[in-house]
Amino acid sequence: MSLAVHYPMTQNLLFICSQNRLRSPTAEHVFAGRPGLATMSAGLNAGAETPVDPELLAWADVVFVMEKVHRRKLATRFAGSLANKRVICLDIPDNYDYMEAKLVSLLEAKVGRHLPGLLGPAGQPGRRPQQQA
């Protein structure tokens, strides 16, 4: 698999669920194309559309998992690839269809909480607004 080039002004977000068919592809789609973000998605189970692998994890600056079980599976299978990686559990159950409005809203709210820390003004990763005197 050939991954996109990692640009220094872009935060690479990897979304992970079980099969990479509903939740994580929805998240990838929802956040794709936003300034300062690059997105990919993958699944942990056998038969996932795009399986998680060390190359994807190396590409990612931040890994979002949908459930606590995904975090445990990642830690068990890919411990060496997770060094210095931020892994965030969104606690979104497998109850939604691809691009379902409720799922999109949940993703916007839950991922959105973490984006201010990843993006500063004008979509510049890691830059915080300067305080005015």
Keywords:
single chain; 133 residues; alpha/beta; Rossmann fold; four-stranded parallel beta sheet; 17% strand; globular; disordered C terminus
Topology of this protein?
Blueprint: E1 11-17, H1 23-31, E2 37-43, H2 54-59, E3 62-65, H3 68-77, E4 86-89, H4 101-112, H5 115-118
Parallel strand pairs: 1-2, 1-3, 3-4
What does this protein look like?
This protein has 133 residues and is α/β, with parallel strands linked by helices. The protein has one domain (11-114): Response regulator (Rossmann fold, 3-Layer(aba) Sandwich), CATH 3.40.50. The protein has helices spanning 23-31, 54-59, 68-77, 101-112, 115-118; strands spanning 11-17, 37-43, 62-65, 86-89. A four-stranded parallel sheet has the order 2-1-3-4. α1 (23-31) links the parallel β1 and β2.
Proportion of beta-strand residues: 15-25%
In total, how many domains does the architecture comprise?
A: 1
Determine the CATH topology: Rossmann fold
Structural class: alpha/beta
Please count the helical segments.
5
Distance between the termini: 49 Å
User: Please, what is the CATH homologous superfamily?
Assistant: Response regulator
Uncertain segments: 120-133
As a whole number of angstroms, the C-alpha radius of gyration is: 15 Å
- Name the CATH architecture: 3-Layer(aba) Sandwich
What is the typical, i.e. mean, pLDDT?
86
**Major sheet details:** 4 strands, parallel
The first-level CATH class is given as: Alpha Beta
In one word, what is the shape?
globular
The number of distinct β-strands equals 4
The percent of residues in helical segments reads 25-40%
> How are strands sequenced across the largest beta sheet?
2-1-3-4
**What string gives the helices and strands in order?**
EHEHEHEHH
